[in-house]
Structures are given as C-alpha cells and as structure tokens.
Amino acid sequence: MAARRGRPLVLASVLALAGCASFGGIAPQSTLQDVAALDAGKTLVSSAPADWPDARWWQAYGDPQLDALVAAALAGNPDLRLARARVAQAEGYAQSAEAATLPRLDAEAGFQRTFQTQQEFSPSPEFAHTYWKSDLLLRASYALDLWGKDEKALDSAIDTVRAGEAQTQAVRLSLATAVVQAYVQLSMQHSLRDVLVANLDRQQQLLDIARRRREAGLGTELEVNQAATPLPDSEAQIEQIDENLAIGRHQLAALTGQGPGAGDAISRPRLALDHPAELPAALPAHLLGRRPDIVAQRWRVEASSRDIEVAKTRFYPDVNLAAFAGVASLNLSTLVTGSLADIGTAGFGPAISLPLFDGGRLRGNLRLQSARYDEAVERYNGAVIGALREVADEISRQRSIQQQLVLNNTALDSARLAEQQAEQGFHAGLTDYLNVLNTQSVLLQQQRNRTQLIARQLESHAALMAALGGGYQATQEVAAHGEPQ
C-alpha cells in the first residue's frame, strides 16, 4: 500500500524536474508584412482595370512557333524536372511524418546461441552450458502524442509540399518568361539585320554614284574613298548580327532541354502584340494569391511556424504504448513443437521519456526554429515588396516606351527626309559626301532605336505577365495574415 501511495509522488517529482528544460525567453522576432500598409503609389492604379493574365499568356504574341517552344520548355527543361523532384522528396518526407501518427506493427524473429557460465545466475547451475535463446514475436507500438508533436510535424511537412508545388509553378513561369524574352531578342536581331542590310544597300548605291561622278569628271577620288569606307564596317556589323542569331537559337534550344542543333530549325519569329499597359483591380491584395513565389514563401512561413510548435512539444514527456505477443523458448526444437501454453509470451505497458538535463539541446533547437521562422517571414516580406516593385517597374517601363515610340516616329520621319535630301544634293553635286554620311548615321541610329524599343515593349509585356503571376492562382488562398484557409 505504501508503494502505491508513493507513485503519485514519484510522478510529480519527475514532472517537476521537467521544468529544468524551459523554453521561456525564446520567440520569433519578425512579423508578416501587411500588404495594405504598403504605399502602392499612383503607378499601380489602373483607370481601366484589365483581366489577370491567362495561363497561356504567351499566346497573345500570335506566333505558333513561340507556343511550340514554350510547350517544349515546359516539358523538357531540367530545371523544371528538378523542381518536380524536390516536390517528390517533400511528399516522401510528409508520408514519413504521417506514419509517425499511426500505430506500428513489426514482426521479429531472434535466434541466439548463448554460453552460460556457472557464476552468471544465482543460485548457480551445476555446470556451465550453452543453449538456444529463440523467439518469434509481434510488436505493436503507438505514440499517444499528448502534445500534438507528430500532428504538428505532419502539418509542417504538408506545408512544405504545398510550398514545393507553388515553387514548381514559379519555375514554370520563370521558364516560360525566359523563352519568350529570348524569342523576342531573336526577333530583334532579325529586324536589326534588316536595317543594316538596307543601310548597306544605300551605301553601295552611293558608292556607285560617286564612281559615276568621278568618271564624268564631276567628282573626286576622295569622294569615292569616302563612299567606300563605311562598307566593310557595315558588313562586319551584319556578321555580328548573324553571330547573335546563332547564339539566340542555341539559347532557345537549351531552354527547351535540347542540344544546340535543335536551334537550327527555328525560323524567323513573327510576333504581333496589341496590349495596353493596364492592371487588374485590387492589385496588391489579390497579387498575394497570384504570384507562385509569394504563395510558396507563405507556405514556408507556415511550415516554420509548425516547426516551432514541434520544438516546444519536445520539452514535454513522450508517452508510448507498447505490446508484444509471440512464442519464446530456450530450446530451438521446443519453439517449433511446444504448445502455446508452454512457450507463449506476451506483454503490454506504457513507456515514458522525459527531458531533464540535456545541456541546452532543446533550447538550442527552439532558438534555431525561431530563427528559421524569422528568416522565412523576412523572405516573404521581401517577396511581397519585390512583387509590387516589379509590377510598378513594368507598368512605368511600358508607359515610357509608348512615349519614346511616339518621339522616335517623329525623329525617324525627320531622319529619312534629311537622308533623302542629302543623297539628292550629293547626286546633283550640291553638297559633299560628309553630309550624306551624317544623315545616314542619324537615320541608322533612329531605325535601331525603333527596333530596340519595340523589342523592349515585347519583353516588358512578358515581364509584366510574370510579375502578375502568369495565370497562376493558388488553389488554397494564402492570406496576408493567419493560416491558409
């Protein structure tokens, strides 16, 4: 009876000793950014709200070859397969975490030849001897998980899987954007080549005029040399463009997960895009669920929050239930032929483990998880701020390019007129060749500017689609505060 009265006292003493491992004073320091508190600025206010991007937003360029390249990249790029492999790893970890919440049943067989000395037991046997210690057992165990440690670990693992799935979508979006922008660059190089070839033709025509003028006694050898001088440089520039075209095709082939030879089949792009620089309504708040990178980071914050809870539960005692049943014998033949009444064995009971003095391991782990949570939160905050900046940058860039194109049209018309007048004056002997060179140089620069502005406009459209999430929408909304619903 006295022993029974002492059991509560022993249990109370053990629980009291658990206070030696305390997590007091350790807590995260970072807080999630409230997107409503950020100043979105006038740039992110649209006078005519547009729809969110479509999942196949690149089809707006109207080029079937581009559509095929994006599809090939999404099917064969190694980076995307790597992201999927990481999701599979996270799923395997989640499956292992789920197994910890379920009962476990193991089969065990043991056969051991043992030598027993005379002094090993008391009273001592008459002589030393050997025997077979053998058993066949079924062992069952179940962790009661009184503090929810295993459940919280499972929740963390599931959040990590969701983060991986969202990150895979972010990789898809980044990959599609890279293909589109590389394709736009290829298109620009073709257009620049057209400009240079047309300029070379004009230079060749002027050289022919200079030679005819010299032969007629109206011009000089100096004019012929001046007309011939720009031709090699123009031919070198065309050669440089051809190099850029080859490299651009190699880049696209690599993005699609193929060797450079696959780029040889890529023909000249045929891009057409009529897209106003407008934004969806309620942009800042809805962007949180439209950007896969933000959604992925939000799930990482949730996973880190669960890990802190798991770290805290490790300060409390674990209670596991264990049972076994089977047969056991000191004679191998009896294990097979003996009756269950003679060799049957079974047992049941709880097992309690309690942290007492661990040298600060538990507090160190909690501090580590808290710091990881702070890191995840600040990465999320940075992603939110960066996403708004990217959208604002692309809207500002597109509106500026529109104005630059208007100004470029005026400058281009003026340059064409000046170049025509200079050529006519030179042909008639009313002006020297330096005026022709100057007007040609200005015209060439304005033509290049226009080609580059159009390419920047197309690239900026792709960047804006990526900044708006590229058609992604979280299947489970991740709010700016609180847990995913």
Furnish the topology, listing elements before pairings.
Elements: H1 2-17, H2 64-76, H3 78-99, E1 104-116, E2 129-143, H4 149-215, H5 221-228, H6 230-255, H7 283-290, H8 292-313, E3 318-329, H9 332-337, H10 340-343, E4 344-353, H11 361-427, H12 433-467
Antiparallel strand pairs: 1-2, 2-3, 3-4
Helix pairs in contact: 2-4, 3-4, 4-5, 4-6, 4-8, 4-12, 8-11, 11-12
Explain what you see.
The chain has 12 helices and 4 strands. It is α+β, with helices and mostly antiparallel strands and about 475 residues long. The chain folds into 2 domains: about 20-100 and about 145-315 and about 360-465, Outer membrane efflux proteins (OEP), CATH 1.20.1600.10; about 105-145 and about 320-355, Outer membrane efflux proteins (OEP) (Single Sheet). It has a 4-stranded antiparallel β-sheet. Helix 4 (about 150-215) packs antiparallel against helix 5 and helix 4 runs antiparallel to helix 8 (about 290-315). The two termini are about 55 Å apart. The model is unreliable at about 1-5 and about 480-485 (pLDDT under 50).
Short description:
The chain has helices spanning 2-17, 64-76, 78-99, 149-215, 221-228, 230-255, 283-290, 292-313, 332-337, 340-343, 361-427, 433-467; strands spanning 104-116, 129-143, 318-329, 344-353. By secondary structure, it is α+β, with helices and mostly antiparallel strands.
Q: Write down the Rg.
A: 38 Å
Termini separation: 54 Å
Largest sheet: 4 strands, antiparallel
Domain module count: 2
The top-level CATH class of the largest domain is: Mainly Alpha
Name of the CATH superfamily of the largest domain: Outer membrane efflux proteins (OEP)
| Share in β-strands | 5-15%
Q: What is the CATH T-level topology of the largest domain?
A: Outer membrane efflux proteins (OEP)
> What is the percent of helical residues?
55-70%
Shape: elongated
Query: Architecture of the largest domain, according to CATH?
Result: Up-down Bundle
Order of helices and strands: HHHEEHHHHHEHHEHH
The overall strand count is 4
SS summary, helix count:
12
- In order across it, which strands form the biggest sheet? 1-2-3-4
Calculate the mean pLDDT score and round it: 85
Q: Give the low-confidence spans.
A: 1-6, 479-485
